[in-house]
Specification:
- With 153 residues, the protein is an all-alpha fold.
- The protein has 4 helices and no strands.
- Helix 1 runs antiparallel to helix 2.
């Protein structure tokens, strides 16, 4: 039976949760777009291993996972501290987001301006992308594991 008397707090949590899922989905789509641009630039360079549908699909998938997990880091439950502490996980996430977004921006610029491929530069951008999304994924997983451990304790 449907409960017709839902409390304002239940409504708030439902709307908040829905907004969070929509936000995470949007970030995953942004990561997919960034992965697409970097894959397109690497494919344009004509390097055989990077010129395949499987590689492009992997770049899109890794971008989605990285941006979904790494940008929204769950916070520790508030603990009274005498002085604030820098969270290494937040730094990992920020550095990863910066590197991945910078690689995507450079890729889009090269594609739009139709720059001649320079194999070394494309590889550098690809490495920035890979390191960036790996930092995001690592930060997201570490933060979620910590949060789960704190919640279980």
């Amino acid at each position: 039976m449907l409960n017709e008397k839902s409390s304002p707090m239940q409504d708030y949590y439902l709307v908040s949760r829905a907004a969070h899922v929509i936000e995470r989905s949007g970030l995953a789509m942004a990561g997919a777009m960034c992965g697409t641009f970097v894959a397109a630039q690497l494919a344009k360079a004509g390097i055989a291993p990077f010129d395949s549908v499987g590689f492009a699909a992997t770049m899109v998938l890794v971008g989605m996972i990285g941006f979904y997990l790494g940008i929204d880091i769950p916070r520790h439950p508030r603990v009274a501290r005498r002085r604030p502490r820098v969270e290494p996980v937040e730094l990992l996430s920020a550095a990863g987001t910066f590197l991945a977004a910078m690689a995507a921006l450079i890729s889009v610029g090269d594609i739009v301006l139709d720059e001649a491929p320079q194999h070394v530069w494309e590889l550098v951008v690809g490495v920035w992308w890979l390191v960036g999304v790996m930092l995001q994924i690592s930060a997201g997983l570490i933060a979620r594991l910590r949060f789960a451990q704190k919640a279980a304790a």
